[in-house]
Amino acid sequence: MPAGGFSGSHGGTEFEAKVTTAVIISCIMAATGGLMFGYDIGVSGGVTSMPSFLKEFFPVVYEKTQQHAMDDSNYCKYDNHSLQLFTSSLYLAALTATFFASYTTRVLGRKLTMLIAGVFFIVGTVLNATAVSLLMLILGRLALGCGVGFANQAVPLFLSEIAPTRIRGALNILFQFDVTVGILFANLINYGTSKIAGGWGWRLSLALAGIPATLLTVGAILVDDTPNSLIERGHLEKGKTVLRKIRGTENIEPEYMEIVEASRIAQEVKHPFKNLLMRKNRPPLVIAIMFQIFQQLTGINAIMFYAPVLFNTLGLGNDASLYSAVITGAVNVLSTLVSIYSVDKLGRRVLLLEAGVQMFISQMVIAVVLGLNLGDNTNKMSQGTAIVVVLMVCTFVSSFAWSWGPLGWLIPSETFPLETRSAGQSVAVCMNMVFTFIIAQLFLSMLCHMKFGIFLFFSGWVLLMSLFVIYLVPETKGVPIEEMTERVWKQHWFWKRFMDGVDEDRKGKDVV
């Protein structure tokens, strides 16, 4: 397709769309929400490994870490519910905020919802960096969680709606890419601040979250809202002006009329959550829910957590957890670039299925090697064997980063019709936070009881989700968002049975 090509087609009319500076800047600024989310994920793991932090807020865990390594099973060292709750509290807050974010995304717009997220992020950062009690620390985590709930609701929608169709996947994955960059930055910063004398390095780690928080807040003030959101809220002329600006052409009438029509239908829906349950919305709803559940049941959190123990066998000493976090973080970032490059060329299904094979094999290898070499209180793993396991960890992380990581957000954001898109994204974020909370709260205990078998457990889920993709996930590459019903759901061998009567619902809208 030539430069300055076309965004999509409808009824034989092509939507002209250049990749304008306005689109690029808007998407980069919006995707800093992912940078903030990633930094929050990455920074917590590092600071909780700092003795000064543990001594101040989690003295019981601190005492346990000071004991000799042989006192506890290799698999049970960090089985502490208080520490797990500190990690998982962010996701509980995000879950709650999601319900409010659905309302603000639809009624106040994508732009203002991103601004609300930025404010919550700043408040949470200040509370965490200045914490003098566990209460302040938890309140800060809860505020950050609220920011995550609002950002994860608004940013993927913003990116999907502002991007030209042919590069929608790549621009949307900017959000996930920024999550991985945020994690990597947090790991690098934690490594540096852990060396600061006086035991206050953890405060600097938490305070530096203010940089992406400020970027998101300022970005949300400067960017325009999406044409879809403006038109949906009745600002037709403003919506047309923004559409002309981001498409870089005067020939925006066909796309504009399609958005207006979709908005008119959306306005007739007074209860979007109730509308989600309608038969015609079953396909995107089921896929959105299952994608969030499967994303967590890949075992990505298990792998990322267990990496420090594996790297420790290579003789990296006390800095093992921080070294391993940096290495896996770097693999995460580079592999997400693969997804950005290939998602709109190869399609969504190819990436998901290839990664399924890669994740299944790598987890099976890890389970077998740990089962044969790593006992409860003994570590017999040779350096050569440990290198094999470390390579398998990186193989798993890379495959997740170009598949279920970014596509878990992209596919739900692009498959819902406008009238239920905000509510659908809310359900997706909600399910993701529920299962992230469950995994974060239970994983250390599961590891203690299941030992190496936990990797067999997760590999079984990888097999199941790959079958789900084969049979029930259609390809959405290159399909304009407003044409999903006609070009995707009505053509799918299974989901087409849910599309009966959709033409009547759309009241004579032209079809492809």
From TrEMBL:
<feature type="transmembrane region" description="Helical">
    <location>
        <begin position="171"/>
        <end position="189"/>
    </location>
</feature>
<feature type="transmembrane region" description="Helical">
    <location>
        <begin position="83"/>
        <end position="103"/>
    </location>
</feature>
<feature type="transmembrane region" description="Helical">
    <location>
        <begin position="452"/>
        <end position="473"/>
    </location>
</feature>
<dbReference type="InterPro" id="IPR036259">
    <property type="entry name" value="MFS_trans_sf"/>
</dbReference>
<feature type="transmembrane region" description="Helical">
    <location>
        <begin position="426"/>
        <end position="446"/>
    </location>
</feature>
<dbReference type="InterPro" id="IPR045262">
    <property type="entry name" value="STP/PLT_plant"/>
</dbReference>
<dbReference type="GO" id="GO:0016020">
    <property type="term" value="C:membrane"/>
</dbReference>
<dbReference type="InterPro" id="IPR003663">
    <property type="entry name" value="Sugar/inositol_transpt"/>
</dbReference>
<keyword id="KW-0812">Transmembrane</keyword>
<keyword id="KW-1133">Transmembrane helix</keyword>
<keyword id="KW-0769">Symport</keyword>
<dbReference type="Pfam" id="PF00083">
    <property type="entry name" value="Sugar_tr"/>
</dbReference>
<dbReference type="GO" id="GO:0015293">
    <property type="term" value="F:symporter activity"/>
</dbReference>
<feature type="domain" description="Major facilitator superfamily (MFS) profile">
    <location>
        <begin position="26"/>
        <end position="477"/>
    </location>
</feature>
<feature type="transmembrane region" description="Helical">
    <location>
        <begin position="21"/>
        <end position="39"/>
    </location>
</feature>
<feature type="transmembrane region" description="Helical">
    <location>
        <begin position="384"/>
        <end position="405"/>
    </location>
</feature>
<dbReference type="InterPro" id="IPR044778">
    <property type="entry name" value="MFS_STP/MST-like_plant"/>
</dbReference>
<feature type="transmembrane region" description="Helical">
    <location>
        <begin position="285"/>
        <end position="309"/>
    </location>
</feature>
<feature type="transmembrane region" description="Helical">
    <location>
        <begin position="350"/>
        <end position="372"/>
    </location>
</feature>
<dbReference type="GO" id="GO:0015145">
    <property type="term" value="F:monosaccharide transmembrane transporter activity"/>
</dbReference>
<comment type="similarity">
    <text>Belongs to the major facilitator superfamily. Sugar transporter (TC 2.A.1.1) family.</text>
</comment>
<keyword id="KW-0472">Membrane</keyword>
<protein>
    <submittedName>
        <fullName>Sugar transport protein 13-like</fullName>
    </submittedName>
</protein>
<feature type="transmembrane region" description="Helical">
    <location>
        <begin position="115"/>
        <end position="136"/>
    </location>
</feature>
<dbReference type="InterPro" id="IPR005829">
    <property type="entry name" value="Sugar_transporter_CS"/>
</dbReference>
<feature type="transmembrane region" description="Helical">
    <location>
        <begin position="321"/>
        <end position="343"/>
    </location>
</feature>
<keyword id="KW-0813">Transport</keyword>
<dbReference type="InterPro" id="IPR005828">
    <property type="entry name" value="MFS_sugar_transport-like"/>
</dbReference>
<feature type="transmembrane region" description="Helical">
    <location>
        <begin position="201"/>
        <end position="223"/>
    </location>
</feature>
<dbReference type="InterPro" id="IPR020846">
    <property type="entry name" value="MFS_dom"/>
</dbReference>
<keyword id="KW-0762">Sugar transport</keyword>
